DNA sequence: CGGAAAATTGAGTACTCTCAACCAGCGTGG
DNA sequence: CCACGCTGGTTGAGAGTACTCAATTTTCCG
């Protein structure tokens, strides 16, 4: 057994875990809470690129890339395990299983990114939000965090907007339309999916890209 | 030296090299020509997810993922080297340098996907197309395929539209607007970037995400 | 030279954005 | 204990970008 030196770090809501353009030194795994990756465009607007739940790597790419190409922020109070990149690389050299698990994590990460490209490029506001809600529900379920179709949902409407390429105002109206149609219920940080099949239909959601059970 | 059994395969324009939902058996490297990855949504519209030039892996993820989560098509007449996934995994186990090179390729691939998410989510039509043109110019230059700001450009307007999340009609009008402003010249499959700095400005292009020279 | 694919144009529509105001919940401090 | 300030959510009206549909021209190839 190889001992892997790691340190726990705790971040408050909205705190930056990594910043675009800065040199990288560690890789981090999310232990508790939620985090997201984002990039800012020249006029200051933000695009959220992915959400992460406990157990996922936030930045394995740091192993080989020396400067961060995006920002990482805590969504709520979150803690991570940070490992020096060289230690992780050594561990991966020594242990085939770990190497494979980490590579698999990053390959599935890519698959999710591809689906997000589709979501932003080819679905309207209702579809984009429906798809996002389905994805999060499915991932939380797979992780055993939520058992059914009701789960804690600490995203603000502005964050949903930044993840779906919409404005906060239009996100608000679109959520209302989903509520009015009896598809979801969302209040005080709690989401209930009332009609899973309909939401899947609207969001054109197919879980294949999540590669569960590989 | 480990011998790697591979076979060359040639594809005509628009031919499918891989189809979503089908089981995977090989990994392919593009030898000649151009290729792209895409996904189709339920109403049949297409979203292009990435473009690939000679020398790039088209589907390393097949090594660990048993079913394709997207389609791969040849953009023009293209040839690839196909390697059985298990052979590639064995080679990666044996050779640290190759393992590192392949992982690096897939990590940069992810970085490009992240930038595409930003492109689709937070830029308008002119910005999206400008960014795409800058990215292709920069990658071709880095690969030594094009020396300057003029290069062969076999994309149809429909393909540009599918890559930028626009319609073909709007893509046409947007290209005209870029031409009218003296930023580009595009005809008979040949693109000239007439004002690189202005195009970079419009597309909010920053080459960092391409991780050249890592 | 003919036919198909690609590019272009026009007119009307609709989705999403912008701006600006207003409301609700909540933690803090006087 | 209540006022205050802040964040997040909601609403309205008007503007604008991008879409749809359908026709037409141009280019590309066999």
Percent helix of chain A, as a range, is 25-40%
**CATH level 3 topology of the largest domain in chain A:** Jelly Rolls
| CATH architecture designation of the largest domain in chain A | Sandwich
Distance between the termini of chain A: 25 Å
Determine Rg of chain A (CA atoms, Å). 18 Å
List the domain count of chain A as a whole number: 2
SSE ordering of chain A: EEEEEEEHHHEHHEEH
Instruction: Give the tally of β-strands of chain A.
Output: 10
So what's the oligomer here?
Answer: homodimer
Percentage of residues in DSSP E strands of chain A:
15-25%
User: Biggest sheet of chain A, open or closed, and with what strands and sense?
Assistant: 4 strands, antiparallel
Major protein interface: A-B, 48 and 48 residues
Q: How do the strands line up in the largest sheet of chain A?
A: 2-6-4-5
Q: CATH H-level name of the largest domain in chain A... which superfamily?
A: Jelly Rolls
What overall form of chain A do the CA principal axes indicate? Answer: globular
> What low-confidence regions of chain A span 5 or more consecutive residues with pLDDT below 50?
none
What do the pLDDT scores of chain A average to?
93
CATH first level of the largest domain in chain A: Mainly Beta
Structural class of chain A: alpha+beta
Number of discrete helical segments of chain A: 6
């Amino acid at each position: 057994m190889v001992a892997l030196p790691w340190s726990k770090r705790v971040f408050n809501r909205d705190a930056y875990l990594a910043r675009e353009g800065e040199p990288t030194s560690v890789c981090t795994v999310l232990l508790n809470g939620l985090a997201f990756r984002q990039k800012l465009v020249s006029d200051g607007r933000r695009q959220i690129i992915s959400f992460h739940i406990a157990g996922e790597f936030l930045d394995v790419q740091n192993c080989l890339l020396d400067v961060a190409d995006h920002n990482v922020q805590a969504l709520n109070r979150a803690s991570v395990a940070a490992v020096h990149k060289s230690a992780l690389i050594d561990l991966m050299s020594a242990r085939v299983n770990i190497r494979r698990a980490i590579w698999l994590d990053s390959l599935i990460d890519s698959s999710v990114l591809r689906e997000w490209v589709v979501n932003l490029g080819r679905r309207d506001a209702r579809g984009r939000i429906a798809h996002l809600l389905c994805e999060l529900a499915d991932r939380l379920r797979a992780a055993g965090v939520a058992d059914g179709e009701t789960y804690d949902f600490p995203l603000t409407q502005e964050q949903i907007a930044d993840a779906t390429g919409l404005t906060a105002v239009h996100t608000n109206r679109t959520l209302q339309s989903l509520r009015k149609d009896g598809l979801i219920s969302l209040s005080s940080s709690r989401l209930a999916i009332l009609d899973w099949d309909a939401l899947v239909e609207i969001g054109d959601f197919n879980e294949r890209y999540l590669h569960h059970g590989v």
